[in-house]
Amino acid sequence: MRSFYRLAVSAWLFAGVLVVCSGCSEEAGPKKQSVVPVKGTLVYKDRKKGAVVPEGAEVIFNPVKQGDEKNPVYPQGKVQKDGSYRISTYGDFDGAPEGDYAVVVVYKTGGLARDSERTGGTDALKGRYSDPRSTKLKATVKGGSPNEFAFEVE
Q: pTM for the full model?
């Protein structure tokens, strides 16, 4: 009887170790796609002011075809004071997966600025570049080549 008890306890302990270790794999969560660096510039051609740097504008790369339909990615960046942007997917400025993209730009003006984020306000581009199905801005990200995209919006 005693050996049966030891065997039962050992089996339960072994099962517990298996359950605990099943969550110890190196990859937690969905598999990340490999990315390549992407950067560029954005200029806003204002009819009244001429060429303007749209500081704070959001630049979002919408994949024409997702590499992983279950875990879609939308690489994005923010325009800096000098008009440049760098794209991030999983971490700061890591880039974007290779592929074709419809590029969306939203440039909010007015509203409240808090911690480098603008809440409220209106899109100075009047939604012309906010829909991935109708934006005229396109980009193809390729590995092994410079992925630098200069966009001009009105």
A: 0.76
